[in-house]
Amino acid sequence: MRLGAVLTVLAAAVVGCAPQEDTAAAPPAGPSAGTGCAKGRLTTVADGRLTVGTDKPAYAPWFRDDDPAGGKGFESAVAYAVADRLGYARSDVIWQTVPFNSAVAPGRKKFDLDLNQISVSDERRRAVDLSSGYYTVRQAVVALKNSPAAKATTVADLRHAKLGAMVGTTSLDLVNDTVRPDRQPAVFQKNDHAKSALRNGQVDAIVVDLPTAFFITSAELPEARIVGQFPSAGGRAEQFGIALDKGSGLTACVNRAVDSLREDGTLARLEKTWLSEAADAPVLT
Questions:
Q1: What CATH number is given for 12-135+239-274 in this structure?
Q2: Residues 239-258: tens digit of each pLDDT
């Protein structure tokens, strides 16, 4: 998941300014992703429409107000930008609720694309197609300010803490493979459950992606703080990719669309609109 130089949350509480309206967040219209990728040539779940999946709740800052179709939030904006490059108008996009684990599990999909902070990995690529990365992110630790875990400055400092993370995510992988705590980590079906456990003292800290960590500490749990962010594992940046059915005929076109959005600066503009720079999150050594 659920890796980066440019990170963190959009939120008035964090950046000190009001969020921009749809017109500011909307990407400029562009040409189709390439020859053979025009709307009339693509085979989709619903003829002439593009079905896009994500989980529910649809968390900020990736989506706003639990409304993927609203166009607000980074991943909602990216979805519409990709649709535009493929020749689909906003009104042609159908949103569908897809649990995170279902999106990356083997088996035939009922969606064309899924955006849900899905980190690209070789293991996941054996089950589904994953697009070029549209966002580079790091994982972070969140703890209540009065918790001993809040004083950690190194990965080793966290080894005696009771940690929690969402099931099936790179956050949980990082806990198990990098932190290697001496207590079994708590595993949650949703990040909402992890936040509740943190608030109630059932865990000392939780691991989530950095933009989510900033939103949690600024808008949801002001009594919590970001302890620190993890460096890229093995020097490899973690990236979010769009999930598609294994062997999907759309994959090459979606890759071209994402690549074109990166090359012309659209992804960077959307990051600036919906995410802010995490300059003050210390790196755990």
A1: 3.40.190.10
A2: 999 999 999 999 999 999 99
